Amino acid sequence: DGGITQSPKYLFRKEGQNVTLSCEQNLNHDAMYWYRQDPGQGLRLIYYSQIVNDFQKGDIAEGYSVSREKKESFPLTVTSAQKNPTAFYLCASSIGGVFANEQFFGPGTRLTVL
Amino acid sequence: AQSVSQHNHHVILSEAASLELGCNYSYGGTVNLFWYVQYPGQHLQLLLKYFSGDPLVKGIKGFEAEFIKSKFSFNLRKPSVQWSDTAEYFCAVNARGGADGLTFGKGTHLIIQP
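Structure tokens for the assembled complex are given below, as produced in the milestone run.
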């Protein structure tokens, strides 16, 4: 069953701790993305990766870091430098390449920092 | 930089009413346009997309959208809504030429009353 998995669904952390959100896809997609969704704000792009071992900052990259060591995986670390980390985080993937394509989204992880 | 504006943040309609959700974007070049929907408790999923050709595009569940280049608009329409259309709707834009991330509008929360 092809798709994107994100774990865990809910995550709680204390202020000042780094936390890593998992994103795995078995769609054989080259491109992967991380978005943050806040109520009334829509989705905002954090980081994206068009190919393994390469990634670019999105619109709100400060306080976040990523890695892309495998095609299937694109983990996001929310660092203690992120001022407002409590949010709903969505991972997506697409075929990639020269032309833009539809992005497929995972179920999301809701992070709450206490 | 790209931006997307959705005019209605909350819309309440009765079943069988007609729907039109506005979306305007600001970008000087050629764009790909998308409408995504987020049903309660479900993944974000694609409703329809415009890449080129006929500016009137049809999507799933009876939705359609019209791309009007001169107005930088991509409004979503449905002639007769159903209770099951209750969801959050997002307009998104991607500049053609790469697998860059999407720029989303802030979303419209649609409630259909039976």
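Chain A touches chain B at residues 30-31, 33, 35, 40-45, 48, 50, 58-59, 90, 92, 94-103, 105-108 (CB under 8 Å). The two ends of chain A are 35 Å apart (CA to CA). Further analysis is deferred to the final report.
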